């Protein structure tokens, strides 16, 4: 999707029974910082209390989201800010997963890190053939967050989820479909085909679909919250490792990291 840039990091457009949520930092491939998380949470609150039935998540510009804004994270040396940001991420992940609407993630270009975590919280994950997906926290000595451990296990099973996290490699849309990470690969006019999918859903008894969603989310949300807590604790520990510091320096110096397991 391409729209004019504004000051908002997350845009909301409502048309009848459909809401489109757009990650809107195209100059950094929609990398997410604290303001993004906060605005996304507020948008989800607005949608929850609206008459919308279907929500489409997408990114402005050349991709869905490149993940967390590493440069923003590095510029903030206040360790006391880490906990509140992780709590904000937890709030977003829970609200998105339990949203009483049908949610479609429409991925084009990169969907990485926490951007991919949020995409996987939706009910349908659809990717254009240009999609490139990566759970790439391992490259800087960190673990996935945003509920990624939970959502990956749901889609892939524990063993394949662990291996995907540990490898941290990029997958094209076809590879992601083959392992079950996404639901469909779309070629051609992406926006048009997403709109067609939305129209198809709106022709169904959506209230019954949402009721089924809520039965599952109500049954599983405590497990998700536990995973998010473990991710917060684990991420805090990983941020103090030598491997994380090496990963960051390698990123800044544009070289391959040399990890020692410490």
Write structural notes for this entry.
The chain contains 10 helices and 9 strands. The protein has 262 residues and is an alpha/beta fold. β1 and β2 form a beta hairpin. The protein starts with 9 loop residues before the first strand and ends in a 9-residue tail after the last helix.
- Structural class by sheet pairing and helices: alpha/beta
Count the beta strands. 9
Low-confidence stretches: 1-6
Helix content: 40-55%
Radius of gyration: 18 Å
Instruction: Provide the spatial order of strands within the biggest beta sheet.
Output: 1-2-3-4-6-9
The largest sheet, given as strand count, sense and whether it forms a barrel, is: 6 strands, mixed
Order of helices and strands: EEHEHHEEHEEHHEHEHHH
Furnish the topology, listing elements before pairings.
Blueprint (H helix, E strand, L loop, with lengths): L9 E6 L2 E6 L10 H15 L5 E6 L10 H6 L6 H17 L3 E6 L2 E3 H8 L3 E5 L3 E3 L13 H9 L1 H10 L3 E2 H7 L4 E3 L3 H13 L3 H33 L3 H12 L9
Parallel strand pairs: 2-3, 3-4, 4-6, 5-7, 6-9
Antiparallel strand pairs: 1-2, 7-8
Helix pairs in contact: 1-3, 3-9, 5-6
Summarize this, please?
The protein is 50% helix and 15% strand. It is α/β, with parallel strands linked by helices and 262 residues long.
């Amino acid at each position: 999707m391409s729209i004019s840039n504004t000051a908002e990091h997350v845009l909301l457009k409502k048309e009848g029974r459909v809401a489109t949520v757009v990650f809107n930092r195209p100059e950094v491939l929609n990398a997410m910082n604290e303001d993004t998380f906060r605005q996304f949470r507020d948008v989800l609150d607005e949608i929850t209390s609206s008459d919308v039935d279907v929500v489409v998540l997408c990114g402005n510009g050349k991709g869905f989201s490149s993940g967390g804004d590493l440069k923003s994270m590095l510029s903030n040396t206040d360790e006391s800010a880490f906990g509140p940001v992780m709590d904000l991420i937890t709030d977003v992940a829970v609200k998105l997963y339990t949203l009483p609407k049908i949610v479609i993630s429409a991925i084009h270009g990169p969907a990485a890190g926490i951007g991919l975590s949020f995409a996987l919280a939706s009910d349908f994950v659809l990717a254009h053939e240009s999609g490139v997906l990566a759970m790439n926290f391992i490259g800087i000595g960190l673990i996935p967050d945003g509920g990624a451990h939970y959502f990956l296990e749901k889609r892939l099973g524990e063993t394949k989820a662990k291996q995907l996290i540990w490898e941290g490699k990029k997958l094209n849309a076809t590879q992601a479909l083959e392992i079950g990470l996404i639901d469909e690969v779309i070629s051609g006019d992406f926006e048009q085909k997403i709109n067609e999918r939305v129209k198809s859903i709106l022709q169904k008894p959506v209230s019954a679909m949402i009721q089924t969603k809520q039965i599952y989310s109500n049954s599983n949300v405590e497990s998700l919250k536990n995973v998010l807590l473990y991710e917060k604790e684990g991420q805090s520990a990983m941020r103090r490792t030598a491997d994380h510091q090496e990963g960051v320096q390698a990123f800044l110096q544009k070289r391959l990291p040399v990890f020692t397991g410490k």
